[in-house]
Write a structure and sequence with these properties.
Elements: H1 3-54, H2 70-77
Length: about 90
């Protein structure tokens, strides 16, 4: 194998590794954002319930714990990444 071929193979491999590292970094960022989104969902619900209690209660049937979305109920009962809705906004 001549020096040029050797160097080209090394540079190609370095390029592929660099692309893989960037892809993993992007995936880690996306997962982190999704976890943060789930935490924010739970925090909003917590604060809504706290506010209801601070105000002396809510009208019957409008209590925050009675009108939770199915996604929020799943996240509360099983707080894992799969139960955090994906952000579909662009």
């Amino acid at each position: 194998m001549d020096a040029n071929t050797y160097e080209l193979k090394a540079l190609r491999e370095m390029r592929e590794i660099n692309i893989a590292m960037r892809e993993l970094s992007n995936q880690a960022s996306a997962v982190s954002k999704r976890y943060k989104q789930g935490i924010k969902m739970l925090e909003r619900q917590f604060l809504t319930i706290e506010s209801c209690l601070d105000d002396g209660g809510c009208f019957p049937g409008t209590e925050p714990w009675d009108i939770q979305s199915p996604e929020l109920l799943k996240l509360i009962s099983d707080p894992v990444l799969a139960n955090i809705p994906e952000d579909s906004s662009v």
